[in-house]
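Customer ticket, subject: "Can you confirm the structure for Ribonuclease P protein component?"

Message body: Hello, I'm evaluating your service for our small team and ran a test protein. I'd like someone to confirm that this is what the system normally returns, since I don't have a reference to compare against.
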Amino acid sequence: ADFHELARDLMRALDKSGLLRHHPAKGRAPRRSM
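Agent reply: Thanks for trying us out. I re-ran your input and got the following:
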């Protein structure tokens, strides 16, 4: 069982769910706020 593959599937499911949209860690929002 590859943990990376499981994590990738989980991230894909979360992305489809729209939960990752709350995390601006993808690089969409600049880090100037911090």
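A couple of notes from the result: The chain has a mean pLDDT of 71. The radius of gyration is 12 Å. Feel free to reply with more questions.
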